[in-house]
Design brief:
Layout (H helix, E strand, L loop, with lengths): L2 H19 L4 H14 L5 H6 L3 H17 L4 H12 L4 H16 L4 H19 L4 H15 L7 H10 L3 H7 L1 H19 L7 H8 L10 H24 L3 H15 L4 H6 L3 H19 L2 H13 L3 H18 L2 H17 L5 H14 L8 H12 L6 H27 L1
Length: about 425
């Protein structure tokens, strides 16, 4: 290995160790790694910029801004209360409906945003019912990660994969959404069998839920109407962006700009509300992985993997799916995806059909997040919300439910991918 290759690998490993240890903020770790590559002349400013996927950054910034405006309308709280009322306060029906709502919202919104919107409403309604909210919150954690797998914009790894592989919103709907629907259906049945005996509620408490006024959740009716119209247009924009010849980032940023113009909200507050630390993390990480790409390390790894799997596409699908899931259950999936993307692109240039491998990677990293409490940001955030309200979810208590369910979803995904592509 050349000195530049050694430096690029050492910097990458140092960044990974810093992220895993959590002693250094992941954004600081990624940016420090990028700066080290610049200081050691592995990359120049000009070459570093070329490795930053601006389409991914654009989608993230655009959707963060868009959601920040929309959530001020009270739309999501309205949906939660209205749905609870439609179930007539039946505890198992509420669990199932809220799980589905979380999955659907997570297909179009950031998972953390989704659980922050639905989680507190869930706790409020379960307190009225006088029932333990933990089963509800566990199903929502899992539904957020599963639902995010279904679309191009549902989870950051999908945005990265779609941007790098040239996959459209419709491509994800056609390839990952079918198995997501199947998984959600099976999990709804499984959760019903798991929890039906432990969620009994007094009839008077169910009546209290039916008596809730969903209209009180609406903070601004004009903004709510604008939000609904814009959500429909954004979804249509993502569906047809490839036919229109525009990038998905253009759709997200245009939607954000329009909502900032017509939303009547404090622009400073909305812009400050963007998770800029996450954006910096992505920028730094792209540069760190770019260092290994620039020095030929990624190409060497890809060639090794090609030699290892040979022409056995079935083996490659299973290897990437299961490795992605197990690793993503305990480690941040974004660095893993950022490393594998250039490897798969190199394998593609080597003559291998990697189309099924993109879907194996997407399903593995997104569904793998359900494996442990630290597998995804939404898990940690909703567990924090639960603990603040007096209902702690420990690492081991989550693992007993989450890991077996994650394995089940990966088994289903394996069968699906082999039937579809083998």
């Amino acid at each position: 290995m050349s000195m530049e290759q050694i430096i690029s690998v050492v910097v990458f490993l140092l960044v990974m160790v810093a992220i895993i240890s959590e002693r250094v903020h992941r954004s600081v770790a990624a940016m420090a790694g990028a700066i080290l590559l610049l200081l050691t002349h592995v990359l120049t400013i000009e070459s570093a910029v070329t490795y930053v996927d601006m389409n991914t950054i654009g989608v993230l910034v655009g959707m963060m801004l868009f959601v920040s405006v929309v959530k001020n309308s009270g739309l999501f709280e309205y949906i939660a209360v209205k749905s609870a009322k439609l179930t007539q306060g039946q505890p198992m029906a509420i669990l199932t409906v809220f799980m589905i709502i979380t999955a659907v919202l997570s297909a179009f919104l950031d998972n953390v945003t989704t659980v922050l919107l639905i989680g507190p409403m869930t706790i409020a309604i379960t307190q009225i019912l006088e029932v333990n909210p933990v089963p509800y919150l566990l199903t929502q954690i899992m539904a957020s990660n599963i639902g995010g797998t279904a679309t191009l914009i549902g989870d950051p790894p999908n945005i990265m994969i779609g941007s790098s592989a040239g996959l459209s919103f419709l491509d994800f709907i056609q390839n990952t959404a079918p198995v997501v629907v199947l998984i959600l259906l099976l999990l709804a049945i499984l959760f019903y069998l798991l929890y039906r005996g432990s969620l009994s509620v007094a009839p008077e408490n169910m009546k209290k839920v039916v008596g809730l006024d969903e209209n009180l959740a609406i903070k601004s009716k004009p903004l709510l109407i604008k939000s609904v119209i814009m959500i429909v247009l954004v979804v249509l924009g993502f569906i047809f962006h490839s036919q229109l010849g525009i990038e998905s980032a253009t759709v997200a940023l245009a939607a954000a700009a329009i909502m900032l113009l017509i939303g009547g909200q404090d622009a400073e507050e909305i812009i400050l509300g963007v998770e800029w630390s996450t954006i910096l993390f992505f920028v730094g990480l792209f540069v760190v992985v770019g260092g290994m790409n620039e020095t030929g390390v990624i190409a060497a790894l890809a060639n090794w993997m090609l030699t290892f799997v040979g022409n056995n596409q079935v083996f490659a699908i299973i290897l990437i799916l299961w490795a992605s899931a197990i690793i993503s259950a305990f480690l941040d999936n974004i660095p893993f995806v950022a490393t594998l993307i250039p490897m798969l692109l190199t394998m593609e240039h080597g003559g291998m059909d990697v189309t099924p491998l993109w879907w194996a990677l997407s399903l593995g990293v997104c569904l793998g997040g359900n494996g442990s409490l630290i597998g995804a940001s939404a898990n940690v955030v909703l567990a924090g919300v639960s603990a603040k309200n007096g209902y702690p979810i420990t690492f081991m208590s989550y693992l007993k439910t989450g890991f077996p369910i994650m394995i089940l979803t990966i088994v289903i995904s394996t069968v699906y991918l082999l039937i579809r592509f083998a």
